[in-house]
Amino acid sequence: MTTPSSLKKPLLYLLIGSVLLSALLGIVLVLRGNWGWLEVRVILTTVIIAVASVCGLACDLSRTPSGFNAMPKSGLVLTAVTTVLLLFGIWCEIGSEAYWKTTTVLISIGVATIHVSLLSIAKLANRFRWVYFIGSQIIFGLALLIAAVIVFEINSELLWRFLAAHSIVVAAISIVIPILHRISKTDANRGDLLMPVEARNVDSIDRQIAQLEERLAQLRTLREQIVGGTLR
């Protein structure tokens, strides 16, 4: 009953096609025993498209039937931009350091955006919502820290340790939020705790009910007109 998305099917087909093509090319290259830069670029292209399709599907999964959907839309835009930059850089053999730094920074922010979008699928009770808010800041903080390391080429053992600790906290948050979602499901009032897929299903059902009610009203009006005309 989910409302069909204009991007869901193309992304799914693109994912399946890129995975199959990558597997086929891998088999052919292994049997030939001849690896060149062209073959590597072809394999990288299929892998990049497959990963981009997964990211796009993740953003679509976190989309809600109402609201601006800022995170999913931002994730889709960043996925599209970074995919184009990667493919353009690989095939045009761009050697600019600034180009690849920019691409890597956008990938870091894009991954964080998609991560936060996926975590938003878990609907938390009011007493737990602060966890998602704080977790989002920590995830984006890690992305920005990685971006700073890339741009300024920081090489510090203390910083690497902090990044490792920060990553552990992000992993812990990614585990805790789905658990809190399951706990929130036990609350008496679950109306506001619907996951995006469930919310889209409910929204689709509501629209179909409204269409049926409108049709019933038209049929009742038509019946009254027919009966009224017969009586006269």
TrEMBL record:
> What keywords were assigned to this record?
Membrane, Transmembrane, Transmembrane helix
Question: Which domain of life does the protein's organism represent?
Answer: Bacteria
**What is this protein's name?**
Uncharacterized protein
Transmembrane segments in this chain: where?
A: 12-31, 43-62, 74-92, 98-118, 130-152, 158-180
